[in-house]
Amino acid sequence: MAIVGYGASAGWFVIGGLLLLAFGVRRFPAYAGLSFTVLISVAVALAMYHPDWLQNWGGFELKKLIIPLLQIIMFGMGSQSSLDDFAGILKNPKGVLVGIGSHYIIMPLIGYLLATLLPLPPAIAMGIVLVGCSPSGLASNVMAFIARANVPLSITVTAFSTLLSPFLTPALLKLLAGQLVPVDFWKMVMEILNITILPIVAGLLFNAFAYANQTRRSVGIQLVIYLAIIVLKNYLAIQTGEGSMLEGTLWNIGWFLVVPIVGGWLFHRISGGRRDILDRVLSMLSMVGITVIVTVITAAGQKSLLDVGLLLLLACFLHNTLGYLLGYWTCRAVGLNEQSSRSVAFEVGMQNAGMASGLALQMGQLATTGLAPAIFGPLMNTSGSMLANWWRNRSGDDREENLAQPLSQTPKALES
Questions:
Q1: Nearest residue to 384 (alpha-carbon basis) of 154, 156, 161
Q2: What is the CB-side half-sphere exposure of residue 191 using CA atoms within 13 A?
Q3: What are the TM regions of this chain, as residue ranges (predicted)?
Q4: Which residues contact 332 (CB under 8 A, 6 or more apart)?
Q5: pLDDT of residue 90
Q6: For residues 251 and 228, what is the distance between their CA atoms, to the nearest angstrom?
């Protein structure tokens, strides 16, 4: 149909075929985990064939949904964790330091090399560097669990790479990509605090009150730390000429401290602190959120993707797979065991593409810089699933040393 001039109509067969495939793979346990990735492909196909449908509904620009959806996903990540997860750095400091160092050295450098070597427009090439400079995401923890790797190490590296991202991401981006397009360092710091850190703070507080598993002293210390983060974020906003210090601080306290505390307390009273209920809800919200984000970005950048799509896909594939390869062998070279090396491989190769998309939106370059994160996200989940299942079926040389479960997360939570 496409060859004889009915390309638009042929699109519905592509979309329908992918949709049937998404439901079909669920019948096979070995491939059921790929169903969500195929659904992402359905959304991408729809956005490529009918981009006008997915940019504006009744005068409302759908790209305005991206930041709130990212904040919900980050809240979910925080609500599945507690401060105990950060204690992992005391138990395995070498693994954590190697993981964070590899993450923030290998991926930014690979991104820079690909952006400079491949003939891509500067704004699109910057998206590759932006992905490389972003922290690792929750997906890497899930892959580490499936691969029977060192899950506590994975969680700790994710947590600390995220905490460092307000400073390292804009600094690295300005250093490596400043020549491509201008980068406002302090504005990006503020955006990362708003998109990532504050929602995670809200999730951690929700966790403390929803499951009532922490002492009053611990909760009190957290409140002081989180209040300091909110004050810092609003101080930076004033320095960049945005908003009012008092108004912004009170607004953030209400949304990111008061609401999660009240919500966590109500959840505990109503559900008795049952984690499985929240797991299912947050899992569904995360899947819907990621699908909407990828769809909107693809629709906004459809014209650019038609011009550089295959080249950008190749760049993202190389970025992702080289991250796995170099992350794993760096760990083996410095003496980390098999399971820890697997975890760090996922931490290096898998990025928080959602946060990168949000930053591209805030920079006003969703249809260009935002394309690389939109491609990298589904691609890394596909490759990560395949690598995790392959490793799961291969025995590690020291598996028994490193199969401790997460400090506060259950396998069921990770699977969701």
A1: 154
A2: 21
A3: 6-23, 30-50, 65-83, 95-118, 124-146, 153-172, 192-212, 219-238, 250-268, 280-302, 308-329
A4: 341
A5: 67
A6: 14
| Token duo for residue 315 | 């760049």
DSSP state of 32: G
Q: Is residue 16 within 8 Å of 24, Cβ to Cβ?
A: no
* Contact (CB, 8 A) for 20 and 41: no
What is the DSSP secondary-structure string of 334-400?
A: TT--HHHHHHHHHHHH---HHHHHHHHHHTT-TTTTTHHHHHHHHHHHHHHHHHHHHHHTS--TTGG
Whole-angstrom Cα distance, residue 168 to residue 161? 9
The amino acid at residue 345 is A
Closest by CA to 107, choosing from 383, 323, 317, 321, is 323
Task: Report residue 24 CA to chain centroid gap.
Answer: 27
> How is residue 16 written in tokens?
């329908």
Q: 199-239: per-residue pLDDT in tens?
A: 888 988 998 898 887 888 888 988 998 999 999 888 888 87
Summarised one tens digit per residue, pLDDT across range 83-125 is 666 665 666 688 899 999 999 999 999 999 999 999 988 988 9
Can you read off the two tokens belonging to residue 177? 């990509």
If one compares 385 and 326, the residue with the highest pLDDT of the two is: 326
Residue 303 sits at the vertex; the CA angle it makes with 301 and 309, to the nearest 5 degrees, is 80
Taken in order of first residue, the domains within the chain and their CATH numbers are 7-415 (1.20.1530.20)
Is the whole-model pTM more than 0.70? yes
